[in-house]
Specification:
- The chain is globular, with a radius of gyration of 14 Å.
- It contains five helices and no strands.
- About 25% of the residues are buried.
- It has helices at about 20-25, 30-40, 70-80, 95-100, 105-114.
- It is mainly alpha-helical.
- The protein has one domain (about 5-114).
């Protein structure tokens, strides 16, 4: 699914490659437990298997990972009613630039859309 742009988050990350998204679709509790444990360690926080639920960043309906509700990039894109940040007149804004430096594949995905 590397080239499928339909599952891109606003920021260019591919939801179809996100462990939380995949675990939600699969419904496997073991996957959610494994991801929660890994992400708790990586991000030095307490993430429970119940937190590992997401129907994709651009999905208006359904559940999202807890960070999605506070993500400034997602909130901005929703407010502007744009499909992805590639459609924004302010592309790339300061928030997006920081993310794109950390995740070059997200930048590549957005550049393909521009």
């Amino acid at each position: 699914m590397g080239n499928d742009m339909s599952q891109l988050a606003y920021c260019g990350l591919n939801c179809a490659e996100c462990p939380a998204y995949l675990a939600t679709l699969s419904g496997y509790e073991y996957s959610k437990e494994k991801i929660a444990k890994e992400w708790s360690k990586i991000y030095n926080t307490d993430i429970s298997p119940d937190d590992i639920n997401c129907m994709g960043c651009r999905s208006r309906e359904g559940i999202h990972f807890s960070h999605c509700y506070e993500c400034s990039i997602r909130l901005c894109a929703v407010e502007r009613s744009i499909a992805t940040c590639a459609d924004c007149v302010e592309y790339p804004c300061i928030d997006l630039k920081e993310l794109l430096e950390l995740v070059p594949v997200a930048k590549q995905n957005l550049e393909k859309l521009r």
